[in-house]
Amino acid sequence: MKKGALAKHLLNTTINTALRDDVPKRTIRNLVELGENFSVGRFQHDFFGKMRSMLKNENSIYYKLWETVLTETDPDALKTFGINIGYNVCTSGGETIRTLVKKHGCAIPSVITIQYNGREMGSAEVDNIVRQGEALGIFAYIINYCGGELEPLAAVFAQHKDCGFVFLADDCGLSFEAASKLTEKKNVMLSVSIDEAGFEETCCRLRSSRMLYCVHTRYGEKQSDEILSGALIEKIRPFSSTLALLIPKDGVCANTSAKVGDFAVVCRNQQRYPLIPMDLRFDILAINRIIANRRCYVVFDTDGQLITENGRTRDLSLNITKYSLIDIFRKALAFESPLVY
Question: Which pTM does this prediction carry?
Answer without folding.
Answer: 0.90
